[in-house]
Amino acid sequence: MSVWGRLFVDLDDNARYQRWRDQKLSRMPAGLDEYLVSVKDPAHLTRNEFEAIRNLLERANMAIFIAASDDRCNKNIPLNIGAQYSMHRLDHNRGAGRDGVTELTVRDGQWRGGYIPYTNRPIHWHTDGYYNEEQHKIHSLVLYCVQNALRGGENTLLDHEIVYIHLRDNNPDYIRALLHPQAMIIPANVIRGREIRPDRAGPVFSVNANGALHMRYTARTRSVIWRDDRLTREATACLTEFLASDSPYILSAGLRPGQGLICNNVLHDRSGFDEDEDHKRLLYRLRYYDRADTSISL
Ligand SMILES: [Fe+2]
What we know:
Layout: H1 3-9, H2 14-27, E1 36-39, H3 47-60, E2 62-67, H4 76-83, E3 102-104, E4 123-126, E5 140-147, E6 151-152, E7 155-158, H5 160-170, H6 172-178, E8 184-186, E9 189-191, E10 194-197, E11 200-202, E12 205-207, E13 213-215, E14 225-226, H7 230-243, E15 251-253, E16 259-263, E17 267-270, E18 273-274, E19 282-288
Helix pairs in contact: 5-6, 5-7, 6-7
The structure holds fe (ii) ion (FE2).
């Protein structure tokens, strides 16, 4: 692990943590407007557009690009946005097409309809792929809006490094509890006696080989087993309270057609929504095993 990454797990080195924390908070964008980057052609960013998104990814782990494209159904748009930040290894999850792109839309009467993302119901706070195994952790994500709903369907977003800071500032032992490899267990997914996915145990916080912080979380109360100890309970209660707060770092983004989120798998939720014939919500979702590379330039 890099020297940089050790600050997330070395809870006794408070001086280094404080330096990182203060710098991080001083560089955070002030509000939603500061996360928006207008781009002419998302598939081929100009140097300035590329740099604006890169800068936001570095400071706040996310950016929202706004494209004035007539060709907004084109899956190459989100694919190319990711590729420009070295996001290549797509997670071919069960709902994805052969190209690795998942069409998030309401699906009645298909197997997908049994899963909340393919309904119009709200989705609680989570990071994507919290049920994946260690070697298939989701490090980054593109969410691209082809069509928004008539009402609702907004995503609320929160940089997971801000969550880390909130918890550590409350009690460093909360971080210790959430670094535990058995902190959160997602029980096996069994459908009609067939195991689709085994139990998955893992930490909430972990550090990648490149020193970046990763978070694995779901606010679901069913189908999740938290480690049964006092600090884990207190830590998750502190987190739940924070997610329900009016923290200025919690953003509500209603993506419109041609707009997309590129992020290092930050925490997010989705509100429920209503549709009509002209407003059938369709978002393309791309999950990657790569983190967005912010060390490169055009
Ligand atoms: Fe998600």
